[in-house]
Amino acid sequence: MFKRYSARAWRTQGCYNTGEVPYTGQECRVALPSDTDPNFRWEIRRPNGQHGVHLAMFKNPKRISDITEQLDQRIVCVDMPLPMLPMAEVQWQDIFVLRGYLPNEAERREHLPPIRPERGRPFTCGDILARIIYQQKVWYGNITRHPRPIWTTYGDDKVWGTWRENPREEAVWLVAIRRTRLDNRHRVFYFPELVVRPIYHCNGPQY
């Protein structure tokens, strides 16, 4: 059961600042790219046993290292070496990290530069996840500053339409790290599996 908050409670408590976010119970899973590797999925788990994180759990970063510093307290196994493709097939210069794309966004595979590994240290799940969250936070900041919010433009879509009633960061969940199959240039892209879980309307920005 999902707890419903009265309008008065929202005004007095500011529900988006409390520990209990009033989710509607809806869940919209964002479709994965057609070239997703079906054999790779690293589930994001938290110390309390729950799965996934939402964007508001992380302070707005100025750099990727700001996210890295927050991961240890919020995610388990971030130091686990990332299961890699055979290195004969892909080199570190060909490993990229993407943010998640919602329906109708123009996916241009915008990505950060490759992660150069430290000598003697393998890539970890935390390396990938920090870059994913950083890009997703930047994306959210950009769309909230847009003169015509994107959830208005794509309001007829199921994902955007359910989110637009209260388009807050708490609604955007990252539940797993996924990756693409190798492309024809032997590159691989890591990206998040996204779920949008709308919350009841409460105090805060309205769009």
Order of helices and strands: HEEEHEHHHEE
Distance between the termini: 28 Å
Measured by DSSP, the beta-strand proportion falls in: 5-15%
The largest sheet, given as strand count, sense and whether it forms a barrel, is: 6 strands, mixed
Low-pLDDT stretches: 1-19, 203-207
How many helices? The count is 5
Give helix % range.
Answer: 10-25%
Average pLDDT figure? 76
Shape: globular
Q: What is the radius of gyration? A: 18 Å
The helix/strand class is alpha+beta
Count of β-strands: 6
How would you describe this protein?
- Helix content is 23%, strand content 13%.
- It contains five helices and six strands; from the N terminus they run αβββαβαααββ.
- Strands 1, 2, 3, 4, 5 and 6 form a six-stranded mixed beta sheet that branches.
- A hairpin with an 8-residue loop joins strand 5 and strand 6.
- The longest helix has 20 residues.
- It starts with 6 loop residues before the first helix and ends in an 11-residue tail after the last strand.
- The N terminus and C terminus are likely disordered.
Characteristic terms for this protein:
207 residues, alpha+beta, six-stranded mixed sheet, 5 helices, 6 strands, disordered N terminus, disordered C terminus
Write the layout of secondary structure elements.
Blueprint (H helix, E strand, L loop, with lengths): L6 H7 L14 E2 L12 E2 L9 E2 L9 H11 L20 E3 L27 H20 L5 H4 L4 H6 L8 E8 L8 E9 L11
Parallel strand pairs: 4-6
Antiparallel strand pairs: 1-6, 2-5, 3-5, 5-6
Helix pairs in contact: 2-3
Give a brief description:
This protein is α+β, with helices and mostly antiparallel strands and 207 residues long. The chain has five helices and six strands. Strand 5 and strand 6 (188-196) form a beta hairpin.
